[in-house]
Specification:
This protein is an alpha/beta fold. The protein has helices at residues 13-18, 34-47, 66-79, 95-107, 138-148, 168-180, 194-206, 223-233, 239-245, 252-272, 287-298, and strands at residues 23-28, 54-57, 84-88, 112-115, 152-157, 185-190, 213-217, 277-281. The longest helix has 21 residues, at 252-272. Bound molecules: flavin-adenine dinucleotide.
Amino acid sequence: MTDGPAPTSSRSLLEDLRHPRPCVSFEFFPPKDDAGEEVLWRTIADLEPLQPTFVSVTYGAGGTSQERTVRVTSRIAEQSRICAIGHLTLVGQSRAEIEQVLKQYASAGIHHVLALRGDPKGGPREPWEPHPGGMDHAIELVELARELGDFSIGVAAFPEGHPDAGGRDPDADVLVAKHRAGAEFAITQFFFRVQDYVDLVERTRARGSDLPIVPGIMPILNFGQVARMAELSGAEIPREVLDVIEPVADDKDAVRTRGIELATQLCRDLLAAGAPGLHFITLNRSKATREIFQTLRSEGLV
Ligand code: FAD
């Protein structure tokens, strides 16, 4: 990692997201041990030359690993030129504890947060129970971060609708309410159909909101892993994607090649549809993301 000002230091992240040149960003998760941490720092070093607009670090599912998330995000902010976004969820924490994490982020120079509800400790399919002294919905975290001041706040968005939203229209209502409460940008759950993203943007615009919505991209590199993540998050792997992957499901290299081709095409289609950027869920590895990026760069798209 190198010293120097973050690429976004002269412009706000919001300005970057509204700039005609698409943003590229990367998502990491907090590593579980030293070996995982080494892999992460290597990945960040490999991806830094691509000059991402920002990177983000997830907040442990079920409310675990908060300390590692804050530490890793702080280290990125301190030691790299990259704008670092800290994820934060409501799971298993009182309002006072959540406030404390926001203050830790601010004192580490992290002024961008992704305000999330999180999923129940037992997994996304379990019913949501707020912490007794905590908050119920992400919008309350948006409001809290606004109150504390000095944060640019992002929120989650769901091209297929959040599984508990009761449909895509109420889902879009929630997203727009989060914008009105002070969110400045949204990042989506991963998905595979460009039309789902376009529909979400249209629903949001129809409600009078111009919130920038950055699509989350997860290339299929290991079919079993993506299928599990999709099952957990309620995301659908469409038949047209299965038709490409299933015939080679037993051949790891072929799955990877086809997964990268599918993701690259999705990125092209999203940029053609006006997406303000591409947020790659890297799973802490750089190679596939770099391959997709290089192809898009060679086509003049990023
Ligand atoms: P909310 O906005 O609170 O929505 C949750 C549900 O409640 C939705 O069904 C919504 O429609 C409904 N709802 C919201 N507000 C109201 C209201 N006022 N009245 C009635 N219903 C309402 N999880 C992690 O644990 N750690 C992470 O780091 C993480 N990062 C993520 C990053 C991205 C980009 C995305 C898309 C998701 C991420 N998640 C993460 C998962 C996320 O926490 C879950 O999908 C969670 O179920 C929903 O979070 P939310 O912030 O959208 O919640």
